[in-house]
Design goal:
Structural class: mainly beta
Shape: globular
Helix content: under 10%
Distance between the termini: 32 Å
């Protein structure tokens, strides 16, 4: 697949420090991946753009077009000249909102990136009314067009942006809107961290100045979170996490339900074995939450069921880097994630799913077949047994094969979504 320091289609270097990512359906059954690069200052492999926001800065996004055969058809810069493009979020209309995690003057904005029209004027135009702060992630309610935003700072606040133009078209967010921060009327901001799991509160949204939202949110008594990270909207629910919150500072997962205007602490980690410092998140096709960790030890992708039970999907056995950018697509690549350092992909796919494991194969893992110096493959059982076997945290779901190779460019986990059963 794609590795930092390699070559883009036009010969420019593939930038380093991969981070947030989303997948879109492309032409000819292809999958389009838009990927952030969390860069600032001098770096070995910067984002070298032709139409940057600020030419002196090295952050931005790249885009990969991956064919149905799992091979890259094209790879190119799609935005540049920004700072610390950490996470962001996909829009329902097929673009990527890339977020600057910085407070540097003239930065700290959200930009809309159209993968089909790279480095256009839109990609270098900040959505100023979405606020200037240390942005982390975004998620959009497709029913209303409202954008929810997390802030990676200490303390941090939860925001929503109500667009003036709800048409949900490319560029519509540039037509202005109202920025608000979440508050709980019956609790002060200092008390808001004293949630316990399952507790729900009604939310009051308070208008804040997009030029100084953090200060105003604090002054108006909005909920002061520890440090917000990932965000995802699915099935009428907005999910987000607070990476260092809780009694043991291991992290929390919240959900906000717009229909009832209620905020719930869904999960608080009490053990690093279960979850440690949640970061990027996504929802699986079968309804579980998948969470990329960014802790001090070995980082993993943790699954969380609707019942609040956790399981390990993958571990990074290469180094101390986080896994980032988890995303699913209905075409070409069912699941994809990336190693932050070194910049390496962790995509699903590779070959076709092939045989499903026999019933007596307890862990749902067949022997390695046709593996090469660069590839590790595995398959999972259908959905009826999928969650059960993962809950047992079996070794086959750890990316241990990486330890066997000193020089590799791809780790493949085959997740056959076409085999899922109701």
């Amino acid at each position: 697949m794609s590795e930092e320091g390699g070559k883009l289609s036009d010969g420019r270097p593939i930038p380093e420090k991969f981070d947030g990512m989303a997948a879109f359906s492309g032409a000819d059954n292809s999958t389009v991946l838009v990927r952030n690069h969390e860069l600032t200052g001098d770096t070995k492999y910067p984002v070298i753009g032709k139409n940057p926001y600020r030419k002196e800065h090295t952050g931005g996004t790249t885009t990969l077009v991956v064919g149905a055969d799992r091979k890259i058809k094209k790879e190119y810069v799609s935005s540049s000249g920004t700072i610390r493009n950490c996470a962001g979020g996909a829009t329902p209309w097929g673009t990527w909102l890339t977020c600057e995690e910085t407070l540097e003057e003239g930065h700290g904005y959200v930009f809309e990136v159209d993968p089909n029209d790279p480095e256009n004027k839109l990609s270098k135009t900040p959505i100023r009314e979405m606020g200037a702060f240390s942005h982390e992630a975004t998620a959009i309610d497709p029913a209303t067009g409202i954008v929810y935003l997390t802030e990676d700072a200490g303390p941090s606040y939860l925001y929503r942006f109500i667009p003036n133009d709800r048409s949900q078209k490319i560029g519509s967010l540039q037509k202005g809107g109202k920025l608000q921060a979440a508050a709980i009327e019956e609790m002060s901001s200092d008390e808001s961290s004293k949630f316990y799991s399952g507790q729900r509160f009604g939310v009051v949204w308070k208008d804040v100045d997009p030029d100084k939202p953090t200060a105003e949110a604090g002054d108006k008594g909005c909920i002061a979170f520890s440090r917000l990270e990932g965000a995802y909207f699915e099935g009428g629910v907005f999910w987000f996490d607070d990476t260092s919150a809780g009694d043991k500072d291991l992290g929390r997962v919240y959900r906000y339900i717009p229909a009832t205007n209620t905020l719930e602490l869904f999960y608080e980690s009490s053990s690093a074995n279960d979850l440690e410092m949640p970061d990027n998140i996504c929802i699986t096709p079968w309804g579980d939450l998948w969470i990329a960790e960014d802790g001090d030890g070995v980082d993993r992708i943790i699954g969380m069921t609707p019942e609040g039970e956790t399981y390990v999907f993958a571990e990074n056995k290469i180094n101390d880097s986080e896994l980032a950018g988890p995303t699913f697509s209905t075409r070409g690549i069912p699941f994809s994630s990336i190693f932050r350092r070194p910049g390496l992909p962790l995509p699903s796919g590779g070959h076709s799913p092939g045989r499903m494991p026999a019933a007596e194969d307890k862990w749902g893992t067949p022997p390695l077949q046709n593996h090469t110096h660069h590839k590790y493959q595995t398959s999972f059982q259908p959905l009826r047994k999928f969650r059960e076997c993962l809950t047992w945290k079996p070794p086959p779901f750890n990316v241990t094969a990486c330890q066997l190779y000193k020089n590799f460019s791809e780790v493949t986990l085959c997740l056959p979504t076409s085999e899922f059963q109701d």
